[in-house]
Amino acid sequence: GFPKGGSTSLQHYFACGGLDTSHFKCRKKLPKHGPNVWQEKGVQCGKCIRYTLHQDLDAPLLERCGEYQVYTQLDVENDWSQGGCYFPQIQALDVLHDQNPHATFVLTFRPVNKW
């Protein structure tokens, strides 16, 4: 989802159903420490995805960034000194779709005046 579009509510809905969910923060694989070693939640999903994509790491984006069943907010909003805003659900959509062809993408929407 997009910021202020109901992504927190969507995350609570799927978590209530017992799915492994992420909202904005992801755990990250640390391959230097072993194949299944994770940094627990704390890294922004968008930063993990952008890093994985731009470093051309040999791992699917979502696999390296948590392996969750549900991601409800992927973007990261930073100032330009930290890479600026990044919306993987837009800027890396082709890669995400190629790597996850059976995934369901939900476009949440909330009128701007309701933000």
Overview of this protein structure:
- With 115 residues, this protein is α+β, with helices and mostly antiparallel strands.
- It contains 5 helices and 4 strands, in the order H-E-E-E-H-H-E-H-H.
- The protein has helices at residues 7-16, 45-54, 61-64, 88-91, 93-99; strands spanning 21-22, 25-29, 38-44, 70-71.
- Strands 1-4 form a two-stranded parallel ribbon. It has a two-stranded antiparallel ribbon with strand order 2-3.
- The two termini are 14 Å apart.
- 26% of the residues are buried.
Chain-wise SSE layout:
Blueprint: H1 7-16, E1 21-22, E2 25-29, E3 38-44, H2 45-54, H3 61-64, E4 70-71, H4 88-91, H5 93-99
Question: Which descriptors would you attach to this protein?
Answer:
115 residues; alpha+beta; two-stranded parallel ribbon; two-stranded antiparallel sheet; 5 helices
Order of helices and strands: HEEEHHEHH
SS elements, strand count: 4
Number of helices: 5
What is the share of helical residues?
Answer: 25-40%
Shape: globular
Structural class: alpha+beta
For the CA atoms, what is the radius of gyration? 14 Å
The percentage of residues in β strands lies in 5-15%
Detail the poorly predicted runs.
Answer: none
Distance from first to last alpha carbon: 14 Å
For the sheet with most strands, the description reads: 2 strands, parallel
Q: Mean pLDDT score, rounded?
A: 83
